Task: structure prediction
Amino acid sequence: MLDALFRSRLVKEALAAVKEAAERAVRAALGAASVPTGEDVEELRRRLGELEATLDALASRREGAAPDPGGESVRDPRRT
Result:
């Protein structure tokens, strides 16, 4: 009997509406608590990737730099 009830179109629509309302409420609560969304995290991940690529390009250019006017080559202080 419960099986037939859960296959009912009316029950399926009601459950879908409840699920949608619950998801909206959770998104609103997370937003109010300043918790980032999945989209926010993906955007941050994309921007971080761009920043890493820029830093890698700058490091590559720096490694090929000519010596500084003081006669010493410019080196990455992290590499000894």
Q: What stands out?
A: The chain has a mean pLDDT of 85.
